[in-house]
Amino acid sequence: MTESSSPYIATPRVTVGAVQPGDPPFRIVEIDGEMVRMAESMTDVVLAAAAEGITIHDLDDPDAVRWVGGGKFHWRLH
Fold this sequence. Notes:
Blueprint: E1 14-20, E2 26-31, E3 34-39, H1 42-51, E4 65-67
Parallel strand pairs: 1-4
Antiparallel strand pairs: 1-2, 2-3
């Protein structure tokens, strides 16, 4: 048997943390476990990845980006 008995879990190189208080609020972007940038928008996430040589084609792809504390449209504290 060549298949694993455990489910597949994506481990993307890019992780976007939960919204942090600030003016404006921001999210921390980590690449390969290292903080690389504070992002204020989806564009900042894509630019941070590009600066590290990573091209993101789909921000909804769990193999590309892990969103913590809300998805790509969540940029304000609730």
